[in-house]
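Handoff note, outgoing to incoming analyst
You'll be picking up this chain. Sequence as last confirmed:
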Amino acid sequence: MRSLGFDVRAATGATEAAELLAAVPANRRVALVDPRFVGHVHALRLGLTDPRFAAATVPGALTAQPEARPALLRALRRVVAAVGAGSPVAAPGAEPVAEDRTVPGRLAVALDAEGTPVQRPELGSLTAAVPTGPEDRGAAQAAVAAVDDEAVRLRSAVKAHDGFFTTYFISPYSRYIARWCARRGLTPNQVTTASLITALIAAGSAATGTRGGYVAAGVLLLLSFVLDCTDGQLARYSLQYSTMGAWLDATFDRAKEYAYYAGLALGAARGGDDVWVLALGAMVLQACRHVVDFSFNEANHDAVSNTSPTAALSDRLDSVGWTVWLRRMIVLPIGERWAMIAVLTAVTTPRIVFYALLVGCSLAACYTTAGRLLRSLTRKARRTDRAAGALADLADSGPLAQAVAAVVRRPGGGFTAPLLAFTGALVLVAAALFTPYGGPLTVGAAAVYAVFSGLAVSRPLKGALDWLVPPVFRAAEYCTVLVLAARSDVPHAVPAAFGLVSAVAYHHYDTVYRIRGGTGAPPQWLVRTIGGHEGRTLVVAVLAAVLTGASAFTTALTALAAAVALVVLVESIRFWVSSSAPAVHDEGELA
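Most recent structure output, in case you need it:
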């Protein structure tokens, strides 16, 4: 217990234990352990030191964070009244009792009954027991001796479900780097920051536009990915989960990848090849892939039932080992994607890198989206209010769409919401592509898009395909910015659009990770301030129509990008470093 950071005190009974617990400062974690406990140290570490849970237990031990301590004391007093002051919580030699009748076990049940959730971590091959006699104690001690808890700890530091490249080419050694970091007092946040810095140096190397720079960029990008795997493994190895870590881990992966795209585009420009449109297209495609994942998962997070034949087929395929890896590789997860980018950067050109990215990510997007469409159409499930609220938050509707939604209600049922969203998006993107650049038709199409967007969200998004609404909005906004910047023929307009989409995408990723943390979407004032997706799209369309000077459009896009980035970053940083942020560590998406 002392090795886990606890100040150990012995109590002769439950009454004295209650007194000792009450005397501990209110801002500290406390734990109650039966003195007959036999088990692995790592079993206690999992049960008593994970900061993500207010209360947790393993057989014979219970812990409570400050927020759960009042409930723990109330439950302990009730247990004292039920079993007597001399209960065997801290009385070596007392009459043996069944494992589930220990005071920590009784308290865990009492806390659950009171409404304080108690986490019970999976121990696997680890031992945690309260023997009831000499034979049981001998068996428990033999079980402890038979399993190396350090080996278990190293294995559990690696995510159970990861991509092929990460599983076989990174994790076999990155887990030992994580242990090395833990033994030297390094934190996951420090490793995450090192990964970001390495990726930014890689982007800078790519921006040189030289073959040596490209080779160095590829090597550094792979090193950054190794550190990216290490930070999560370090967090799991040492149970160092934090609010700041949640924010860093959730956002830096995207920042690293998109910064690298920009570095490649800068390097290509030095060599006389303008690939900014491809770079922005790759970022738009990847961001839209992510929002498809997020939106589908949130829509089905707590679906009442799942009777989809597609899901059943997927489960059957998962029982065949090679199909699991094939299906994980098809979606081009981050490990495979970064490996491809790194190798192609070193041996080819930025243009080829982006062609490969666009083709690979397009095929992956078609595969995953088709599967999710089939699941949604064939399953029979009722989506909850929570799911509908999450989709509404992901939609990022601004004042214009909200005003339309407040005035006009779309017909309910069917696929009305995604059809309205898709129709508005199609009108908008088609106008940006095919009408004269800078004309009023694009502005009118943006206004039509705002109306259709409001109609799409005017009812709760509980339909079978309503999870498509946020991805359609993302694609419409990002693609419109890309098309208008590319058609403007204004110098540096596409790099400025890249900055604008980056700032907006950060806001959308931030929204996702807040929802995942259970704290809800960003505040409405923030969404109103940055205009919502339909408001920003209309502003860009108006700027393209009004600003016809040689650099005016670029300047306007840059100013808009800076303003959006400033507002969303300040609010995001304030939230993630505040006490209201969830203490989680993002486990990451395969994609």
